[in-house]
């Protein structure tokens, strides 16, 4: 029996300040550029103002990329373009600066934090600050066994909560959240299909590196078989993460909920973070108001999850690589929206001369 009471998050999480959002909208009405002429940037500025509880909105000055990493046993079935157990190689490439997220983060001046939750590699092959939260080596093959024990799921969830607290306490004012995994999109598809009540084929995509038709069919079958194990535990979100999730997904879910508690806005990257957000919504229905969908990755499971949470992606560039890269591309737009909302001048007030009546047309 878990000692973690997820119902507490329902009480702890408040919506972003609605009064502040209305003030931000009123300020936007007074600015020299007509409301709506900046498109989605208007909405982004108002969302950020409500999250910060500040008008005018403050600039995003200390963003951070946070990536939770893990290997998934389901990858043994050939559902990914990469070999099973190879997520550790991706992590090393990120740390060495050779992945797309590394290049973008370097260009934008944003630090990247990688948190190993269940990589299938020796911990001494990675820095201590990366591996210190690890729960286990690899998650179980969810079509035939649980991903985690309930105790491991709780430990992973609590690790995500702790990482969110560490970021909030250090002054991080916005997080771009992603994953580094092999098999993660398959597991995410299971969660989305289970929570949305859909079939495996509806949520099965091609993954970050575009699998072929045979791999897609194997992936669809793996999600179908895993769904049979997911449906009996739909009422218990921690048990669901233990049964068909993984340590990285449990940690992401904990991170998302605690970020909402700490009023720290989060930009979601791809299907894995969207699936975890969907689990988080089941736990605390107000939490999605603190999250922004960065982009449409082309994964049908992501589209299904975002639609269920009424989150509209900011970008649609077809970026499928994952690892926070697509999420990071949305950051300059958020920063631009904040700058425009705060710095555009207001229209000059029109002062009527005292005692004068406007002329009436004949």
Beta-strand share of residues: 5-15%
Element-level helix/strand string: HHHEHHEHHEHHHHHEHEHH
Query: What is the helix tally?
Result: 15
Strand order of the largest sheet: 2-1-3-4-5
Low-confidence stretches: 351-355
Q: Report the C-alpha radius of gyration, rounded.
A: 22 Å
- CA-CA gap between termini: 83 Å
The strand count comes to: 5
Helix content: 40-55%
Mean pLDDT: 94
Largest sheet: 5 strands, parallel
Q: What spatial form do the alpha-carbon principal axes imply?
A: globular
Q: What is the structural class?
A: alpha/beta
Primary descriptors:
single chain; 362 residues; alpha/beta; 5-stranded parallel β-sheet; 15 helices
Helix and strand arrangement:
Blueprint lengths: L7 H5 L5 H13 L9 H13 L10 E9 L15 H9 L4 H9 L3 E7 L9 H4 L18 H20 L4 E9 L1 H13 L3 H4 L9 H18 L6 H8 L2 H15 L4 E3 L2 H13 L7 E3 L6 H10 L15 H19 L19
Parallel strand pairs: 1-2, 1-3, 3-4, 4-5
Describe the structure.
The chain has 15 helices and 5 strands. The N and C termini lie far apart (83 Å). Strand 4 (266-268), helix 13 (271-283) and strand 5 form a beta-alpha-beta unit. With 362 residues, the chain is of the alpha/beta class. Helix 7 packs across helix 11 (237-244), helix 7 (150-169) crosses helix 12 (247-261) and helix 8 crosses helix 10. The chain is globular. The chain has a 5-stranded parallel sheet with strand order 2-1-3-4-5, with helices on both faces. Residues 351-355 have low confidence and may be disordered. Helices cover 48% and strands 9% of the residues.
């Amino acid at each position: 029996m878990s000692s973690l009471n997820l119902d507490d998050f329902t009480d702890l999480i408040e919506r972003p300040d609605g009064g502040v959002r209305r003030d931000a909208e009123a300020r936007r009405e007074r600015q020299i550029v007509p409301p709506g002429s900046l498109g989605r940037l208007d909405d982004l500025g108002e969302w950020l103002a409500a999250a910060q509880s500040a008008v005018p909105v403050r600039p995003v000055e200390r963003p951070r990329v946070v990536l939770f990493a893990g290997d998934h046993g389901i990858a043994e079935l050939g559902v990914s373009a990469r070999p099973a157990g190879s997520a550790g190689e991706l992590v090393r490439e990120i740390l060495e600066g050779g992945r797309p997220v590394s290049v973008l983060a370097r260009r934008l001046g944003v630090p990247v934090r990688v948190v190993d939750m269940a990589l299938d590699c020796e911990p001494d092959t990675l820095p201590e600050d990366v591996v210190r939260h690890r729960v286990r080596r690899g998650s179980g093959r969810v079509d035939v066994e649980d991903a985690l024990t309930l105790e491991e799921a709780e430990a992973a969830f609590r690790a995500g909560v702790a990482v969110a607290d560490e970021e909030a306490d250090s002054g991080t004012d916005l997080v771009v959240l992603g994953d580094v995994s092999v098999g993660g999109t398959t597991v995410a598809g299971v969660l989305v299909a289970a929570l949305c009540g859909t079939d495996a084929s509806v949520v099965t995509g091609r993954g970050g590196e575009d699998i072929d038709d045979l791999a897609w069919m194997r992936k669809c079958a793996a999600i179908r078989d895993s769904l049979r194990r997911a449906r009996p535990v739909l009422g218990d979100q921690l048990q669901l993460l233990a049964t068909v999730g993984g340590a990285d997904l449990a940690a992401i879910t904990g991170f998302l909920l605690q970020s909402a508690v700490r009023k720290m806005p989060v930009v979601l990257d791809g299907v894995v973070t969207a699936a975890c957000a969907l689990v988080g919504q089941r736990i605390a229905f107000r939490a999605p108001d603190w999250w922004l969908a960065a982009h449409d990755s082309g994964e049908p499971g992501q589209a299904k999850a975002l639609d269920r949470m009424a989150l509209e992606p900011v970008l649609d560039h077809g970026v499928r690589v994952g690892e926070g890269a697509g999420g990071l591309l949305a950051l300059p737009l958020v920063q631009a929206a904040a700058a425009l909302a705060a710095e555009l001048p207001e229209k000059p007030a029109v002062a009527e001369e005292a005692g004068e009546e406007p002329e009436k047309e004949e």
